[in-house]
Amino acid sequence: MLKRVSIHGNWSSRMGFVLAATGAAVGLGNIWKFPYITGENGGGAFVLVYLACVVAVGLPVMIAEMVLGRRGRRNPIGTMKLLSEEESRSSAWRFVGWLGVATGMLILSYYSVVAGWTLSYTVESISGAFRDAGPEEVGAMFSGLLASPLTLLAWHTLFMGMTVFVVARGVQHGLEAAVRYLMPVLLVLLLVLVGYAMTTGHFMEGVHFLFDPDFSKLTPAAFMIALGQAFFTLSIGMGAIMAYGAYLPEDTAIAPTAATVVAADTTVALLAGLAIFPLVFANGLNPGEGPGLIFQTLPLAFGMMPGGVVFGTLFFLLLVVAAWTSAIGLIEPAVAYLVESRSMPRRRAALLIGGSIWLLGFATVFSFNVWSDLTVSIGDRAFTMFDGVEFFTSNIALPLGGLLIAVFAGWVMSKGSTLDEFERGASTGYATWRLLVRWVAPAALLIVFLQVTGLVDITNL
Ligand code: PHE
């Protein structure tokens, strides 16, 4: 048995990892992104493809990242370099780590701006701005926010500051506690919202929209978007889980741990959908509204329900916390790399990386106002900078990273090495995992990539 330790120390227990990984997984991806892209892609059939991607591709890739992370016990770049050398393979595999570090930074550059919207909505809620507000007022509130670059910038700055603050202190401190106590409260509030959605008289319409698959609504692009969302929401394909896996106790069973995180993440996304779509239909809104969807629907619910100020404030505040624990996962691989390989003090590394991401975020901030006309047309869609970064990272960079990680774990590493990690703590299902990670995940990813290049049309397969 290999005995290697991370210089950052380990999680205090298996639970420490579950909490941190769930913290990274549950975030804006579940509550903001899942509903809006489901709305844009026609509902049920898209949800089904997404769920299939989570189980057949997402779970095996998450396990692979944990296997690699714990075996390497370093940041993703260091782990990929070490493991490829250990298996006597090309050290070019370390570029998978670099790709992940870059992807995480790019994602955080827009993620932080959206997290800023939730900060702003927390304050709006406290001030009572949602009280009895109708769809027009709520819509105007959102467009007003987007139109002001300085306001967006201020919230983005605050959120990046919060992220740097936690990462500078080390991942284990603060993070475990935040997730342990606050995530369950978020879950309860989501249930309250679902309960409210049941009183709108349009609940079943929402349920049908989410769960009745209408395959005629499935476009070729939807497959790529569903796969991208599976990666994004599970925080896989960029090394976050690999970095957290490096701090995993020696005897933790990997497969059931990964399954716990995946189940928690999926539950939160589906609950968010159940809370939001009935509101969309009850208020005659368009489910394909786009990134503003939750910001234009939830305030309506909080504005009407008894105790809405308290619930609304708490909800947006918890969404901030959920985004915060995800942001830490996005930045940790880059910071861990500088600390380990460049011997930089953690505080300086966090400031340097955080500062760069903050600057990158300007592109997103301005793409909603002063640069909103700066677009690139692909097919029938015009992409702003924000759309471009969002699309490239989720739908290309994460799946590409995932493909390379799956190939590395399934084909490059020896069976003995992966089996050694997998079986600790008496995990079962190695043969199934190996089949998925060697064949199913790479095949699914390749088909989707060929689809993007126009070589294959999935809808005709
Ligand atoms: N999973 C997070 C979310 O759903 C986003 C994220 C992606 C976090 C990749 C870390 C790494 O919001």
Features:
2 strands, 75% helix, 461 residues, mainly alpha, two-stranded antiparallel ribbon, binds phenylalanine, Hydantoin permease, 1% strand
Short description:
This protein has 461 residues and is mainly alpha-helical.
Q: How would you describe this protein?
A:
The chain has one domain (14-460): Hydantoin permease (Orthogonal Bundle), CATH 1.10.4160. The chain is mostly helical. It has a two-stranded antiparallel ribbon with strand order 1-2. Helix content is 75%, strand content 1%. The longest helix is centred in the last third of the chain and has 34 residues, at 308-341. The protein has 18 helices and 2 strands. Helix 1 (14-25) runs parallel beside helix 12 (254-282) and helix 10 packs across helix 16 (385-412). The mean pLDDT is 92. Phenylalanine binds next to helix 1, helix 2, helix 10 and helix 14.
Q: Which class of secondary structure composition applies to the elements?
A: mainly alpha
Strand content: under 5%
CATH topology descriptor: Hydantoin permease
The CATH architecture can be given as Orthogonal Bundle
Low-confidence stretches: none
Report the oligomer: single chain
What is this structure's SSE topology?
Elements: H1 14-25, H2 28-40, H3 44-72, H4 76-86, H5 94-126, H6 135-147, H7 149-168, H8 172-198, H9 203-211, H10 220-234, H11 240-245, H12 254-282, H13 293-304, H14 308-341, H15 346-367, E1 376-378, E2 381-383, H16 385-412, H17 415-423, H18 430-452
Helix pairs in contact: 1-8, 1-12, 1-14, 2-10, 2-12, 3-4, 3-9, 3-10, 3-12, 3-16, 3-17, 3-18, 4-5, 5-7, 5-14, 5-15, 5-16, 6-13, 7-14, 7-15, 8-12, 8-14, 9-12, 10-16, 10-18, 13-14, 14-15, 16-18
